[in-house]
Structure formats: C-alpha cells, structure tokens
C-alpha cells in the first residue's frame, strides 16, 4: 500500500487538499445560510447548482484537457475555483452565489477528470483497483479534515471561505511540481446514455441513488442539526456536532478494503454487500439515538 501511495503521492496530495476545501465550504455554506434564516430551498439550490456544474462540466473539461493538456487544464480549474470563492466572500447576493456555485462545479470536474484520467492511464491493470481505492481514501479523508477544519472557525464570518480558497490554490503545487510523466491525450468517445445504461444498468442506478443520498445529506444534514438546536449554542465545540466528523473517517478507511477485493469479487455481489452494510449501520445509529 505504501508503495502505491508513494507512486502517485502528488496526485493523492492534490486530491486531499482539493477535498479539504470542498468539504469545509459545503458544510459552512449550509450553516451560514441557515444562520441567516435563508429557506431550505435556497440551501438545496446552492448544493444542486454545484453538482449540476459537476455534471455539465464533463463536456467542457475533456475539451480543455485535449486542447491545453492535463496540467494547464487543472491549473485553470483551480484558479477559477479560487476566484469564485473569493468573489463569494466579497459579494453577499444569493443569486450571484448560485451562479458562482455552478461555476465552481464546472471548474472542479475538470480537476477531477485530470487526476482520475492520470491515475487510470498510469496504473497497471493488476493494481488499478488498489490505486483507485487509495484515491477514494484520500478523497474521503479530505472531506473529513474539512469538517475538522471548520471547528477552527467558531464565528460565521468569511474566514472559512478564505481557508477554502487557500486549499484550492495549494492543490496546484503537487500537480505543478509532479515528477510523473504526463498522460497521453485520449480521443474522446461520444456520450450515449442509452448505450451505457443498457451495458451497466445496475452500476448507473447505484451511482444515481447514491448521489441522491449523499447530495441531500451534505447539503441539508448541517441544516437539520441546526434546526435541532445543536449547532449554534456552544461554539466552537458544537460545530463538531453539526458537521459530525467523528464518524466520517469510517467512510475513507472503507475505501481500501473494498477497492482491494473488488477485482476478485462479483460487482453485483460487491454492491449488494456494501448496500446492506450501509443500511445496517444507519439503522443501528438511529436505534441507539446517536445519529447527531
């Protein structure tokens, strides 16, 4: 495992820094809007704009990579994300924030495409599952550290936004200074939703349902905590309860074993087992009364 981490450490570190800023800002935005008595519709819209940008940006991202190369496309995405975050700190307008959240999603998907295509091309077939498992570990760890970093900002001001912008800038350094060979340019294939759904319907349905669950939780989970009166009364310790990072590390650490056994097991059986484990864990949490 350590050998695999060392082989792609620059890419993993860039992913970690990028997700620290994203994890912190997503939770902060929900808490900030809730404290400002903004309706849940606006909170959900802000998150939906970000994820819509991730979806729509896939068509733009591969064109940027083909035309300008992986490192330049990644750098442009990071610069746009940083500028959008700093603009949100300067302008207090929900409609502008909605547009900027869309822009952040459009830019960040290019960064994800660069890292994932880089890993996919340069990882050998026999270790590809382990390489992407570690990628998910660092992604989840970044989200966890973002929640912990939020605890350092007990006041609802713009310091968390500045911190997220710093992370967006710092994630450029490992990519710019990497010693790995640049991945070769790939010829894009047309996106045919019907063809892919007929080929792997279970995988697409699983990803879609998972996206519905995680998107709703990331956007409205902190709002629920605030509505229960657990987030605003005793800062900064109560921030930890609102974002609840204490149990989030279980997610990233699960990426390694599941990625390691994935090549040797049935994909359908693998998805079903993960589904049952997640639901059993959620049920036990609800029964013990320690969801928040």
Name some characteristics of this structure.
292 residues; mainly alpha; Growth Hormone, Chain: A; 13 helices; globular; disordered C terminus
Description:
The structure is a single chain. This protein has 292 residues and is mainly α. The protein has a single domain, classed as Up-down Bundle (Growth Hormone, Chain: A), CATH 1.20.1250. 78% of the residues lie in helices and 0% in strands. Helix 2 packs antiparallel against helix 7, helix 3 packs across helix 5 and helix 6 runs antiparallel to helix 12. The protein is globular and about 50 Å long. The C terminus is likely disordered.
Helix content: over 70%
Strand content: under 5%
* CATH-derived topology: Growth Hormone, Chain: A
Instruction: Assign an overall shape.
Output: globular
Overall pLDDT metric: 78
Low-confidence stretches: 231-250, 285-292
Strand tally is: 0
Terminal Cα separation, in Å?
A: 33 Å
State the order of secondary-structure elements, H for helix, E for strand: HHHHHHHHHHHHH
Structural class: mainly alpha
Query: How many individual domains?
Result: 1
- Determine the CATH superfamily: MFS general substrate transporter like domains
Q: Based on the structure given, which CATH architecture is correct? A: Up-down Bundle
Summarize the structure.
The protein has 292 residues and is mostly helical.
Secondary structure topology:
Blueprint: H1 2-7, H2 9-35, H3 40-68, H4 70-90, H5 94-122, H6 128-150, H7 159-170, H8 172-176, H9 193-199, H10 201-227, H11 237-243, H12 250-261, H13 267-288
Helix pairs in contact: 2-3, 2-6, 2-7, 2-10, 3-4, 3-5, 3-10, 4-5, 4-7, 6-12, 9-10
